[in-house]
Design a protein that fits this description.
This protein is of the alpha/beta class. It folds into 2 domains: about 5-220, Rossmann fold (3-Layer(aba) Sandwich); about 225-305, Methionyl-tRNA Fmet Formyltransferase, Chain A, domain 2. It has helices spanning about 15-25, 25-30, 45, 55-65, 80-85, 100-105, 105-110, 140-145, 180-205, 240-245; strands at about 5-10, 35-40, 65-70, 90, 125-130, 135, 150-160, 170-175, 220, 255-260, 260-270, 285, 290-295, 300-305. Helix 1 (about 15-25) runs parallel beside helix 9 and helix 8 runs antiparallel to helix 10. It starts with a strand and ends with a strand.
């Protein structure tokens, strides 16, 4: 094989940047077996308030790739540009919208391959921070903590028109520690994306990417979380409150308690000694930094995030 593998890279997130840094530092890239002529992101003014946002422009500039910033999340308006790029693979990591099916077909059609499922020689590839088919959907890191899971994974997979359903290329298992927070899991996932990008580059260079079909019967789908979902309620048990607080640390909107119409973001929680009867509706700002909050099994002390 004399033609170098051509990649087009799409991201608007720290995870994508780390995965692509892995590719750029891989043996396959440094040996000249892989090239990246095109990178795609979104304008800074559209992404700066998003969780985990990172601009692709600096990395593209460092690597001498053309950088295109778009507000078209499906990339349908960039189909012509991608066709002209003639990528063997389109990588989409840390992108909140589904890619248009016509764009997903570009790597196969421009190289004369039959349309249909990826066979490893061409295709579109994504990464998702759960052990697919568990946790398809949104907010995977907060849900992992909030649901109290003891293990998770980074899944590398071929993209299909439906979210997170394509064949699995690789999975990198991560234990979820007892005191794990969304912040610590976010950092660990970012590091794992770098590892995944480095290893994936070798398969891309050979144009031979193995995969296995997901078992649909085992799939679960997690819904999008909104800032309002972080509200701490008196009906919660302390374990739920503590898990919610840990699940919304790091780059995510914090869990919060409301007092007199004011929302107080929270970064820590512990159960008060001799906290009183279960089902207490105690609610008071004790100090500038702490709140006493009645819950289903006692009284929680909440540490304010300032």
């Amino acid at each position: 094989m004399t033609e170098r593998t051509r990649l087009a890279l799409v991201t608007t997130h720290v995870f994508g940047i780390r995965a692509y840094e892995g590719i750029f530092s891989s043996d396959a890239y440094l040996d000249g077996l892989v090239e990246v002529p095109l990178m795609i992101g979104i304008p800074p003014e559209r992404g700066s308030a998003a969780v985990g946002y990172a601009s692709v422009a600096d990395l593209a500039r460092e690597q001498g790739a053309e950088c295109v910033l778009t507000e078209d999340g499906s990339l349908s308006s960039l189909r012509g540009l991608l066709t002209d790029c003639r990528p063997h693979y389109l990588l989409v990591v840390g992108w909140s919208r589904l890619i248009h099916p016509d764009v997903l077909a570009v790597p196969r059609t421009v190289h004369g391959a039959d349309p249909g499922p990826a066979d490893g020689r061409y295709g579109c590839i994504g990464m998702h921070p759960t052990k697919l088919p568990t946790g398809r959907g949104q907010a995977p890191i907060p849900w992992t903590i909030i649901k109290g899971l003891r293990s998770t994974a980074l899944s590398v997979f071929f993209l299909e028109p439906e979210a997170d359903t394509g064949p699995i290329i690789a999975q990198y298992d991560l234990p979820v520690r007892q005191r794990e927070s969304a912040a610590s899991l976010f950092y660990r996932m970012a590091s794992t994306h770098f590892e995944a990008g480095t290893e994936l580059a070798g398969h891309l260079a050979r144009r031979s990417v193995p995969s296995r079909v997901q078992i649909a019967e085992r799939a679960t789908r997690w819904p999008k979380r909104r800032p309002a979902d972080g509200r701490i309620a008196h009906t919660m048990r302390f374990s739920e409150i503590e898990g919610l607080v840990r699940g919304l640390l790091g780059p995510y909107p914090r869990a919060f308690a409301s007092i007199g119409g004011t929302d107080y973001p929270v970064e820590g929680a512990w159960l008060a000694d001799n906290s009183g009867d279960a089902g207490s509706t105690t609610l008071e700002l004790v100090t500038a930094d702490t709140i006493r909050f009645g819950c289903a099994d006692g009284v929680a002390i909440l540490k304010r995030h300032r």
